[in-house]
Amino acid sequence: MSTLGIVKRNIVRADAAAVEKLGRFGVATIHEAMGRVGLMKPHMRPVYRGARICGTAVTVLLQPGDNWMMHVAAEQLQPGDVVVAACTSENEDGFFGDLLATSFQARGARGLVIDGGVRDVDELERMGFPVFSKAIHAKGTIKATLGSVNIPVVCAGAIVNPGDVVVADVDGVVVVPAALAQTVADAAEKRESFEGEKRAKLAAGVLGLDMYKMREPLAAAGLKYID
Amino acid sequence: MSTLGIVKRNIVRADAAAVEKLGRFGVATIHEAMGRVGLMKPHMRPVYRGARICGTAVTVLLQPGDNWMMHVAAEQLQPGDVVVAACTSENEDGFFGDLLATSFQARGARGLVIDGGVRDVDELERMGFPVFSKAIHAKGTIKATLGSVNIPVVCAGAIVNPGDVVVADVDGVVVVPAALAQTVADAAEKRESFEGEKRAKLAAGVLGLDMYKMREPLAAAGLKYID
Amino acid sequence: MSTLGIVKRNIVRADAAAVEKLGRFGVATIHEAMGRVGLMKPHMRPVYRGARICGTAVTVLLQPGDNWMMHVAAEQLQPGDVVVAACTSENEDGFFGDLLATSFQARGARGLVIDGGVRDVDELERMGFPVFSKAIHAKGTIKATLGSVNIPVVCAGAIVNPGDVVVADVDGVVVVPAALAQTVADAAEKRESFEGEKRAKLAAGVLGLDMYKMREPLAAAGLKYID
Amino acid sequence: MSTLGIVKRNIVRADAAAVEKLGRFGVATIHEAMGRVGLMKPHMRPVYRGARICGTAVTVLLQPGDNWMMHVAAEQLQPGDVVVAACTSENEDGFFGDLLATSFQARGARGLVIDGGVRDVDELERMGFPVFSKAIHAKGTIKATLGSVNIPVVCAGAIVNPGDVVVADVDGVVVVPAALAQTVADAAEKRESFEGEKRAKLAAGVLGLDMYKMREPLAAAGLKYID
Amino acid sequence: MSTLGIVKRNIVRADAAAVEKLGRFGVATIHEAMGRVGLMKPHMRPVYRGARICGTAVTVLLQPGDNWMMHVAAEQLQPGDVVVAACTSENEDGFFGDLLATSFQARGARGLVIDGGVRDVDELERMGFPVFSKAIHAKGTIKATLGSVNIPVVCAGAIVNPGDVVVADVDGVVVVPAALAQTVADAAEKRESFEGEKRAKLAAGVLGLDMYKMREPLAAAGLKYID
Amino acid sequence: MSTLGIVKRNIVRADAAAVEKLGRFGVATIHEAMGRVGLMKPHMRPVYRGARICGTAVTVLLQPGDNWMMHVAAEQLQPGDVVVAACTSENEDGFFGDLLATSFQARGARGLVIDGGVRDVDELERMGFPVFSKAIHAKGTIKATLGSVNIPVVCAGAIVNPGDVVVADVDGVVVVPAALAQTVADAAEKRESFEGEKRAKLAAGVLGLDMYKMREPLAAAGLKYID
């Protein structure tokens, strides 16, 4: 009955072209294009400046202090995947370091998103293997208890299903359900196309108050100007 | 495309008999019976001593500082339901107080589980309306932005689908998927039936080391006794 | 130039009748009556169940690990006052215990609100001296550095001027500027007078959706009902 | 070389009479009597109202998510002991519940102090087995990795050596080195004997400013009174 | 009666020459020159390495999840201003991004200090628009509820009045009341002039113990040297 | 009786050659070589990118808001030492800045590890004086209360004895007892010598599942592969 101790081998990954297209947009734009949903909590930070990820999720459910399932996940990786690791309780141990990164990279993985700790951060930067995590911690882990691979997980407050698109940059991490990848990518493109004009107007000194026609609703809401 | 702005009216609630049976067990027992999954994070605490809930989830997704959807949820409540409220971002405002509690109670709701703040806590205790929350805060909220009712939500780290069984006591909050309610209730019963004998042995001075036959595996793991 | 090292002796306390009237309402009601402002952050909690305070603020600015100014404040207390203590940096030491409580009580003080730690909590409950604090901690403090008494302070996120009315109950702590005490008390009374009718309707099964006429604005905002 | 995987059987417990004497004083008094050292951090809270402990430490070093060593510790317990459990990383899992409490109680243990989570809190209260912990959490743990028993540990920021006296009440938890138990108990007694007179003076309206002769040093430090 | 829903147009900004002079000193120096007050809490961090701000405050009070007032504030900005944004409750949503930054920059603003979240951090760095915030978060906000502009606010624990000088660097954020700007600037200059000599002595191996003549007061306080 | 107010002058520092050898390895490697113990908590972070320390500990116990003992410690420093500063309660004040850094550097110190705040961070980077801390904060401190120098301290959860080796890099801070320095350095060397081969295999696509022979124990634990 438990959802622990399971590895799902065949998962439906989001359409590759849609993934590539999503990779052209920032996390904030994609989140807006989805209708303002899908974000992980803001404690998820890049472990080095400039880290960026876009790929399809292979999910891992870890036990506290135990990274056994990371090795099980490695076998399920395909080029273009991103490992998304959750834990059954809050734990900041260093579940991941340069050896696992070497293995993941050899399998074609594009990065790791983990609601826990990682280590060997300087080496990860040298390797160009981007990681977004809750903590950096040298604490070692054991290999003794089963979790699962490729089941739905909650990572930093977001539901991630295997095959979903995960995009991470300096502004955070967003999860796009596989079935919505193309639609969201198109919506992001459309949204971004409007931004240039807005930016030009604002740079020229036009106020958002006028550009977005806010003066009337502000007055209706009761805003009062005093001297 | 967004999952915001939706109210699902017809949800499949867990079998009533299974819910009642689950109500006879503690949260820790049910969590173990499920294979050690399903718990919310430990920041979810009862707002008064002795609060306890068992019922079927009507889920609500709130926006920060806005409790509009709580009123929308009230109409969807049936006797035996528990409102499970998540928020699109971390926020401890007082989304809920005695007036909403009066309305929920009139609809037959058994309690509220909310990853946010509540107020009027003394009155909630007098009414006997149990609440488990992240915070107690008098801060008022507005009614301006759409969230959703009866979509899957992540509440305090746990996925909750409408109709799932939610059990809360002093040890925390656990979510049992509707389809597993009877199986988990039976497993909890079985588990509890074993505990009496164990407790009697331990009370008589038998050591867990012997009762659980741990001495050999401990030695195999390398445990050393020194003087 | 510094605001440290100052004791202001003559402060204008809020009108006594207004203070007494405010004491009849809960913190949530007063906060709403003020237009939803004036609350301290939700980490301020009563140190024992049932604690409640309403009185006029004598403010204290402490240094971390140092409670010297609490003794200076004692002399400035008049019957009906509440000591409101802030600290120049975040610190959870036990700045206050039963001896200071005895002194404050002897001076007629009604309680303490402190963004720091306190100790001797069982004795405080026996004495009936209510305290709202950030922490309970036995850690002792020294008497070596000047802070100030009766200057404006920021306590748990709220500006408190000496003489302001401070009301604290299980839902939190609210600060009412002295000049607004009567107006807020009247508004709180009015607000509460409306609640009885609302509560009766909701208890009778009327939905907030109908009582507050929310159906139309919800539809206008785009809310969709699905089956 | 590692300090993991060790159980020390013979430890030197603090003198029994000194332990009993320490048990007559509050945590704040003992901390002061020691010269203001020895406290655990303030996140250590009693799991039920009224919990109080005084006894000699049997220390346990746990691994995250693993309570194997608690069973190993049970065998080392003697009447009058208190289990003090630390963890190799921050973890709030429920390492302890009513079965282990039954076993510990049968061995004569007086309580548990744990920098982690516990569960079955209602049952612990019914049993009268006091626990001070960082969290309450139903999360189950495994039995797979070695820690140690009766080595020096850091628990909630305090060094605890096996045999030390641990006193816990609503104000926190203090650790008295075994060799100092009698001296500290005597100092606590002396300190408390002075408090009655001070309390009487303060209750009679004498100010701490005068009783502690603070006016001169305050003036020397530059305190200014303004109107 | 509420302080919400107000925009004050005419504010008294600190003297321009004093602001420029303050801009030559670090935050730590200015804080010391003020007598060790005026700092925001240390959770306020620059969103990119090297960010630095000095200017006059235009204050904004936001509602959680709502950045409407940021647009209202834009109109009140004059060259040399810094936007200081507080929120009525703790909230880490992304209230600010590159479009608002473009608008603020076009108005001559020198940066933003916000006790909340921001996004588009890479673009902010490219634009050279410095921001100090509590969080980085892609989460979008709405425009539905009134806050205020140019009222006194509490931002990260510090009182900020419109027109005050705000200085931010890697060590934190300090607020200088407008009326004290010149005095504090002069005191900072004086303070810094003494530091060169001290630094030279310390670099030459002179101990602070001797330079500050601490040996005698340390001995008087009871310091004991042992071997 | 108190451990406060003491300066120990003669401490036994770890063997210089062993210290130098430890300096060649990363914190994660040393932690593993010690048997997975000795780490400080992950809130200890470098104040600038690229900071790294290896040296022998001179320990300091500070009081909150007071850095007097830092000056006392300076006199005890020898070339190759690292100052390790703990505090009697949690406090993030800026206990340390460029002047003290100048003094420490002049004495030959290699860096500072402090469970508190520091300031003048840009200047510290320019000086090349590495610091690992809990916070960056401009808040000034006083010189009024005794702590101790060169007594055992608990810093960020780790016991540090004077003379122990402290190694800090981007992955955290580890403490090696002086008596174990050579053994741990040798074990770290051995451990690292094995990593090259492992890394090469993993880079070539060999799975950890095979390299570490995990398939059998995973199956024995009950892992199930599904499609």
Q: Can you walk through the features of this model?
A:
Six copies of one chain form a homohexamer. Chain A is of the alpha/beta class and 227 residues long. Chain A is built from eight helices and twelve strands. Chain A has helices spanning 16-22, 27-33, 68-76, 98-106, 121-127, 181-203, 208-211, 215-221; strands at 6-8, 45-46, 53-62, 81-87, 111-118, 131-136, 148-149, 153-155, 158-160, 165-169, 172-176, 224-226. In chain A, strands 2, 3, 4, 5, 6, 7, 10 and 11 form an eight-stranded mixed sheet that branches. Chain A has a two-stranded antiparallel sheet with strand order 8-9. In chain A, helix 1 runs parallel beside helix 6 (181-203). Chain A starts with 5 loop residues before the first strand and ends with a strand. Chains in contact: A-B, A-D, A-E, A-F, B-C, B-D, B-E, C-D, C-E, C-F, D-F, E-F. The interface between A and E is large, with 35 and 37 residues. Strand 12 of chain A pairs parallel with strand 1 (6-8) of chain E, so a sheet runs across the interface.
